[in-house]
Amino acid sequence: MPPSYVIEHLDEAIEKKWCRVYYQPIVRTITGRLCAMEALARWDDPTWGFLTPPFFIGILEQHNLIHKLDAFLVEEVCRNQARVRKAGQPAVAVSLNLSRLDFIQDDFDIFTIVENAVRKYNVPRDLLHLEIVENVLTNRNKRIGETLNRFREAGYEIWMDDFGSGYSSLKFLKDQRFDLLKMDMAFLKSDTKRARDIIISIISMDKRIGNRTLAEGVETQEQFDFLREVGCEKIQGYYLGKPRPYDETIENCRKKGIEIELSCWKAYYDAIMDVDFLTGRPLLLVEYRDHGYHILFANHKCDEVLWPELEDGRSVWEKRLNVLKQPAIRYLQRGLRRVMLSGEAEELAYPLNGNFVMMNCHRVISYNGHCLISIDCHLHKIDHEGPVFKPAYFLRNLFYLYDSLAAVNLTKREVVVLTQPRLKSGLHKYSLDEALQNYQEQMIYSADRRRFAEFLDLNTLKERVDGSPLSSIAEAFRSKGPDGTLVWKTHRISRITSTKQDIFFYVIRVSDAQDVARYEKDLTGSQYTLTEQSGEAEAKEETSVMSIRRLWDNFIMSFPLPVFWKDRERRFLGVNQKFLDFYDFDSVEKVAAHTDEDMNWHVQPNSFKNDELDVIEKGVALHDVPGKCIARGRQYDILASKWPLYDEEGSIRGLMGYFLPTDVFIRNEEKSQKLLFTDGVTGLANIKGILSLLAQYMDEYRFKKRAFAAIFLRVRAIARLERRYGETAVAELLACIAEEMKNVLGQKGTAGRFAEDQFLIFYQYQTEEDVEKLNTALRQAIEGIHHFGQRSCTLFVETRTVYPEDSASFHRDILDAVLGGKHRH
After folding, report:
1. N or C, fewer C-beta in 10 Å, the chain?
2. Which of 452, 269, 300 is nearest to 370 (CA)?
3. What is the end-to-end Cα distance of the chain in Å, rounded?
4. pTM value?
5. Dist. CA 115–CA 108, nearest whole Å
6. How far is CA 533 from CA 545, 546, 555, 579, 770, in A?
């Protein structure tokens, strides 16, 4: 095909869609999921047939026409992203190649081209990555660096393509920051040790300078396995699939069993970049989810050290990690849980074939009920010819027998918890009173807390221990496990005699069956029955026991607030008379076997549902949680409390709770007033608050002639982000948006939220130019939010200003928006 044909027919090819976008999959090595695609140009010409880039890219660059093709690709990629999202399909990030000429072409601003397309199709910026090659950076035109900075500040990822193919790659890494480096697998064509060492060195360097790594041109399973083993995060190549139209690429991945990585998990799995895969030691990546541990990755060293004689060692170890029968596994689980909760690295010792595997555990990231832990292992061999019971060896075995070992210092009012034998890293010192209070509230079952407080009464502890026959006291209490289930644990306190201070040794272990039986018997006779004494003479000799059933009936009949209890599926099992009166029901059959959603008495039911799932799945007890419910044609502000119901085995079988209508209790007047005028998510005014503010501003305008404006502000991305991240995460984002609005407004204005993504600002001004400046400042501040928590976002803000001088449209606009949701942007 002659070059003149390309030059003369480019515009026609773009207009008639001879130029097309093909997509090649990019997969994350750890999960095997589709995490991105590269958009590649193809030319399907009616005369010359199907053409790949070598036939036309160079010609277009030589004649300064490449910017037309790149602008078309940007538009097509964004249009397709909008199509995919509209169809309700998971969005996949796409990388686009930009030519050097795109940055220096006169009368062509590539940043504006990309931004206009992104805004036109409402595409999140984290779904569009920009690839540049080294020759872009060799040009000393100042516009290139400025444009790259604009892209970074706007929230786009910048990738370097073909890293290592040019002569100055390292120089540009020194001068420019990239999010990802793409290296060509031409390095592995020869598949020599030297080639592999070069790749390992590149990956190691990338991690040290904070870049992620992608290998393109991967063609075989062996190459994939090697790259995964050494920590290359993403791969691309014909091993996964050749470039195809978008839908065909998705279908090809589906046939190969490659699932799509939801974009909300990108930051979570990107954090694996921080893990060093090249230690030369056994390495595990363990993910905690769904109340269990799952091994995401185990390198080849694990086969040699951790499970050398097991055919499927990884599966065997994963199963072991989720079984509580072995004391060593319970010790390991406790340590992993401490790492997850505290975020502090910890070394654990696991016994293996007469030796110990020392495990350096580090929390990589946690998100949405998932936690990723890296475990770097090394084998510590025991000299079995020498004395077996060396102090360290003996101490390690103690940790498998006891859930907790601590020293309680009454003199200094502190507790030192020992989590492992190494004294430098295994000692944790806390305030004694705070530690006991926290343990009681977080770990001890509510019915046992009174006994626990008596057992740990610091005012009498010394006297009770010293007065006991063995200078030791013990008691058992039900404690919450990681999933909320109850386990009997025996607590023993003994005096440490070789010190002048009042120091006691405090250990906790899972109770023996005999201990459990004894304590359950003791409790049955004292805690759950009520003894009535009749007559002075008979009081010492005879008692009549009121049954638990009778106590329950009296409690339910007399309790002054609406009470309910549900099964694990959140279906009502029963309610009391106050509950029936509140909803004007004549019998419990009206609600039995129904959920809140079935009854349709919450305008916003998700928060109630999520709270109850926390109670049932995690054993969380909730107190005075604000919310709203509908009864007898009216919406009430309420404060709800809920807690788990346990069976004889300590498993959660449902929940129980009550609620307090805020308008019937004087002590909650201040709290209910705040709920009445304040948006619970953002802390800004709610609809009632907005109308109250409007009345105040109108009074100032009418009687004191103080000019003010009302600014309608909409953040277009909220609904999309809620589908992507969930309601709880978006509430966090809305709080960030509200904080930015408060910072911009300062003392000059007030704001409220009247719809999911819409706000109203009242602002007293001197000139209308001040109002325009405020509009600009609000847009820039909110659109400048690119991350909240560990999540990325792209926000687009629309504003419109109305003034009270135009009284007819002013009041109509505000009332329609606030009361009817009819505001138009």
Report:
1. C
2. 269
3. 50
4. 0.74
5. 13
6. 9, 11, 20, 33, 80
